[in-house]
Write a structure and sequence with these properties.
Thoeris protein ThsB TIR-like domain-containing protein, ThsB_TIR-like_sf
């Protein structure tokens, strides 16, 4: 690895969760953990409905798993609304194995990605304004 390729930053992510019949959340997190040269942590909140500015100031990127949207609309809409309010980049991840995503989420996302971990990490890094 070249010196300029080293990235010691620890990215703070907010990843959508909720009812998850297809286990997309654990699969997604497992993919991130498999990327040994990508350091990250996840910020977790007790409720998506009242996320504070202080909580959101710690977040680098919001990741919305589109496959969870149908069963978790209220929570995900709240995450998106708050991310937009505090100007945090949103990455929308396609449902595992599918191409279609909810149109309302696609309109507000900074980027749309599939499940390739290298693409996810590259996209995540590219949407962050330093």
């Amino acid at each position: 690895m070249f010196e300029e390729d080293n990235d010691d930053r620890i990215y703070n992510l907010l990843i959508s969760k909720g009812l998850d019949a297809n286990n997309e959340y654990p699969q997604f997190v497992e993919k991130l953990y498999s990327k040994n040269d990508f350091l990250w942590k996840e910020s977790v909140t007790g409720s998506y409905l009242n996320m504070s500015e202080k909580f959101f100031n710690k977040i680098d990127v919001v990741i919305i798993l589109a496959g969870l949207y149908e069963k978790n609309k209220e929570d995900i809409d709240s995450i998106v609304e708050t991310a937009l309010k505090y100007k945090k980049p949103i990455i929308l991840v396609r449902p595992h194995g599918l191409e279609e995503v909810p149109e309302n989420l696609e309109k507000v996302a900074n980027s749309l990605v599939g499940w390739n971990v290298n693409c996810i990490v590259d996209t995540l890094k590219s949407v962050i304004n330093f």
